Amino acid sequence: MKELICKNIIQLKPYVAGKPIEEVKRQLGLKEVIKLASNENPLGPSPKAISIVKKNLARINRYPDSNCFYLKLKLAKVHNLTPECFTIGNGSDELIDIIIKTFVEEDENIITAETTFLEYEIISKVNNRSCIRVPLKYHKFDLEGIEKKVNKKTKLIFIANPNNPTGTYINRPELLHFLAELPKWVIVVLDEAYDTFIDVDDFPFGTDLIRSRRNIIVLKTFSKSYGLAGLRVGYAVAQPELISFMERVRQPFNVNLLAQLAAEAALDDKDFLEKTRKLILEEKNFLYKKLRELGVNYVPSVANFILLDVGRDGCEVFKEMLKFGVIVRDMEQYGLSNFIRVTIGIREENKKFLSALKKVIKR
Ligand SMILES: *Cc1c(COP(=O)(O)O)cnc(C)c1O
Fold first, then answer.
1. Between 20 and 30 A from 147 (CA), which of 55, 258, 271, 307?
2. Which residue's CA is minimally distant from atom 14 of ligand 1?
3. Which pLDDT does position 362 carry in this prediction?
4. How does residue 110 score in pLDDT terms, banded at 50, 70 and 90?
5. 2-45+271-361: what fold?
6. What pLDDT does 363 receive?
7. Which residue out of 92, 159, 306, 307 has the highest number of ligand 1 atoms within 8 Å of its CB and is therefore the one to mutate?
8. Residue 335 Ramachandran class (φ > 0 left, ψ -120 to 50 alpha, else beta)
9. What pLDDT score was predicted for residue 14?
10. Cβ of 191 below 6 Å from ligand 1
11. Model confidence, pTM
12. Quick check: CB of 91 below 6 Å from ligand 1?
């Protein structure tokens, strides 16, 4: 059957998502399983979002607003920009696809890091676009290395800031220097899926750069800090002209009715966001301390997950931890064989994770 499949699709490896809780319960016959594998919010969804979704269930016979009018209005207020600076996606994953389709011609290329969010490369390949991947330097995006790869045919550069799966970030002077050196035909996508968890002063939020720069697109999502991963909403921020072309590429009803309402409500739920942020920062310090006691090396993170060097095959560690009812993420797909990535949970989950880790690394 291979001859029926497009050449660029044949070489694709399937994306392996974090293992779902129900699947692990079923396969291993466990009653209690915790998932610390997909950087989701351990406090659940924003309560305001839950309430608005419940109230509007009977409206799903209608198509959603094709323009996400109210959500854009609210986002414009939050970021002090105009609604024309926003386009909404079925998760930021969809926006990555829309960006590539809108801006990258057949003979042009895309650059990103070798060890970063896998969707940049996968979606490039699905669209038959070449994606050049530059190795990280000390677990960080190597901007100088990326700059060396830029040529006349480079159209897009994807930077996950903070980077997933390492949790490292590019600071303001580094980013500004990099942007100043780039030719004007290159668009830089700053993917800020973990913006809420940043606890450093020199982080360069992309939304502050939009007004003065025509070649930046910022990606944000409701999946992580707002706890809406299951509803799929993300958004892109850029100057209105770039956005207007992305709006032509997206499907007319890409963001469902409940997702739009939940996202609006979640934006109003400042208490929930603050509670989430506080929890993650506290629990991050708790985990750091315990990991140091265990002698496990980790990469300091500004996000809601931590990359750990477990000193042995990470896939085996992942499998052995499943037996204790703890789902983490092995890093095989990312080419980091002795590492696992753990999402920061609530205290009880973190303790369960640490106790499983302790047993597993001793073997
Ligand atoms: C989780 C994640 C996303 C995915 O966001 P969705 O809005 O759920 O599609 C995008 N970028 C990075 C870097 C992520 O880690």
1. 307
2. 193
3. 75
4. very high
5. Aspartate Aminotransferase, domain 1 (3.90.1150)
6. 56
7. 92
8. left
9. 85
10. yes
11. 0.96
12. yes
